[in-house]
Amino acid sequence: MSIVVRDVREHELDSVLALNNAAGPAILPLDAARLRHFFDTAEYFRVAERDGSLAGFLIGMGADSAHDSSNFRWFRERYPDFFYIDRIVVASRRRGGGVGRAFYADAQSYAEMRYPQLACEVFLEGGNDPALLFHGSFGFREVGQHVMEEAGVRAAMLMKPLCSYPWVRDTYGDALPEVEWLTRRRVPAARAAQAAAALAPRPTGTCP
């Protein structure tokens, strides 16, 4: 009955897509190309397993991402550095069983080593008190509201300060220790390709 949170695998993308598009109006729909873009570029893309089956997923990225969401841009116009939770989806049969809290604990353990704040939004159309209560109980507070230009939906913009970050930054700077729980995260395909190109031997006689 334990919940396992781990990096998404490429062969699971179809199942993730179906889970997203069955989530209802609180989550914007995706198509396969958009989900593939997240797989290739997202800094954090993890799934939860419970009893051997997919129970949900969470996608997130840092403030320096090229993400094109208007909600993401709203935060970036106002805050210099943060980790943005683009979407979290929990399968309907698993809601209320701790999967959401497991995701947020995992995402926070990742983010607080690298960012001073967590950011996300909750759609307000039609009433969404359970989601607002969940985020409030996890330490998020509303910092404004925004109507998404691409969907016409009003969202409460939420942020949570990550109190461990200043100590981590002052102690380690950008050189975090090479311990498994910090380094085992996925490297997006696009970033891996860039890293491989940077390490490839250069033809002799060329400038760096």
TrEMBL record:
The record ties this protein, via Gene3D superfamilies, to: 3.40.630.30
The domain of life for this entry's organism is Bacteria
Keywords, sorted A to Z = Acyltransferase, Transferase
Q: Per the UniProt record, which EC number(s) apply here?
A: 2.3.1.-
Q: Does the keyword Transferase apply?
A: yes
Q: Is the Plastid keyword given for this protein?
A: no
The record's PROSITE patterns line, in alphabetical order, gives:
GNAT
Entries under InterPro entries matching the protein: Acyl_CoA_acyltransferase, GNAT_dom
- A Pfam family cross-referenced in the UniProt record is Acetyltransf_1
Q: Where would I find the N-acetyltransferase domain in this sequence? A: 3-164
Q: Name one GO molecular function term.
A: acyltransferase activity, transferring groups other than amino-acyl groups
Record-given protein name: GNAT family N-acetyltransferase
